[in-house]
Write a structure and sequence with these properties.
Layout: E1 6-10, E2 15-17, E3 25-40, E4 43-50, E5 55-56, E6 70-83, H1 84-91, H2 96-143
Length: about 140
Amino acid sequence: MITTSIVERFADGQAIVTEGIISTKAYIILSGQVKVSKKVGEKSVSIGILKEGDVFGEMGLFSNSPRTASVIAIGDVNVGIIDKKYFNELLNKTPAELKLVVNALVERLRATTEKLAKVAIHFEKVRRTMDALSVKTAEEEEKR
């Protein structure tokens, strides 16, 4: 069981993490659900839904780079906070080889998240094109 000393509460629709903002906290969902989304150009793409026990914002513990996604509360949500200072204390007790592996995984996850969002945008464009072609085909069939 993971425990944190800091708990924050969020109401339905409230932003917990905002893409592009630098933050050094990670969150553990103690109750409720959240929606994770990512901007690609002007569009916001849903990455997924997280639930009780899931962790998000973990990349902020490794680097001072901007958040790669936004996280919004679905209903009332309680989260535990892991701050960077506490995380670094834990990490300092870890062998150097394990730190290298964890850092590599974090960078791969960041790159995969970017690629996933781009694929989702491309898929949406293809779906709209297919829908338009389907309507056009149906109209042509009706004329015959």
